[in-house]
Design brief:
This protein is α/β, with parallel strands linked by helices. Helices cover 37% and strands 22% of the residues. β1, α1 and β2 form a beta-alpha-beta unit. The longest helix has 18 residues.
């Protein structure tokens, strides 16, 4: 795996659900999301000079839910970005999404930017647990989303699952893993601790998940990320290795030559800066 060059993080801060992990914004009015896309385009056109002469091996669009943004604008922005910047022939382009936002229209729009994977915020596959954490989708909607991704030939799926939800059993976790690894392209699982879970519950369910994944030939490669052989994320590996990373968007972090800085996390300031 060639990690020469830089990775790019494009922050999309809107989401339907993200308890305790990232400072995300509620969806709000569609006009706000459209204005954010316009500001993001302007920032990339201005600060994109940092990428001159640098080869880009991976692009991550997330931090919230990429598919809450106007997808025609997002797809055109990513396509233009790949055309104008120096990307590797096999550049990794992964977008974060929530199950109920992945409709046929959204997947058709994303197809034009030649994405390589979806980071799916599955959370759980048990309705009782999904309801207890006020998740915006049901198990049936999660399964329908996976079928839709398969129908649209999504190249790879990274399912993000929570462990340590109050009341979660080992069977609940195994059921979620079974659902989220059923398709051949479901080659990656990211485990995230539920922020309100007890230490005992976190340890017990994590141990169960790790054993299940290991038995199914998933390889652990750090920070509770598991992949089938060849399914490891270039972006995550480069991030763990401290490779240079250029961040665009609200609160995005840039790391260059050991120095780090962060964009403003105030949405009004950000929109005014790139108005």
């Amino acid at each position: 795996m060639d990690l020469k060059g830089v990775s790019v993080f494009i922050r999309t801060p809107f989401a339907l659900w993200d308890k305790g992990r990232n400072a995300v914004l509620p969806l709000g009015e569609p006009g706000l999301r459209s204005a954010y896309m316009d500001a993001l385009n302007r920032e990339i056109s201005i600060r994109g000079k940092l990428l001159e002469g640098r080869s880009i091996h991976s692009i991550r669009v997330g931090g919230g839910n990429a598919t809450t943004l106007p997808l025609d604008k997002l797809a055109r922005m990513l396509l233009e970005f790949k055309r104008e910047k120096e990307v590797t022939p096999q550049v990794e382009l992964v977008l974060s999404a929530e199950p109920q936002t992945l409709l046929s229209s959204s997947l058709s729009a994303l197809g034009m930017c030649d994405y390589t994977g979806i980071r799916l915020k599955a959370l759980s596959a048990t309705d009782r647990l999904l309801s207890s954490i006020a998740a915006p989708h049901t198990c049936e909607e999660l399964e329908d989303c996976l079928y839709m991704l398969d129908a649209f030939r999504c190249p790879a799926i990274d399912s993000v699952l929570l462990y340590g939800i109050p009341g979660q059993t080992e069977k609940d976790m195994c059921d979620a893993l079974m659902v989220c690894t059923a398709l051949p392209q479901c080659d990656h699982v990211t485990l995230r601790p539920y922020m309100d879970g007890s230490r005992e519950a976190l340890a017990k369910i994590l141990c169960c998940a790790e054993k299940w994944l290991t038995d199914k030939n998933f390889i652990s490669y750090g920070n509770r990320r598991f992949a089938r052989k060849g399914g490891e994320s270039i972006y995550e590996i480069s991030r763990n290795n401290g490779t240079d990373r250029i961040g665009f968007g609200l609160g995005a972090v840039t790391v260059l030559s050991g120095e780090q800085w962060e964009n403003t996390s105030d949405v009004e300031t950000y929109l005014n800066e790139y108005s």
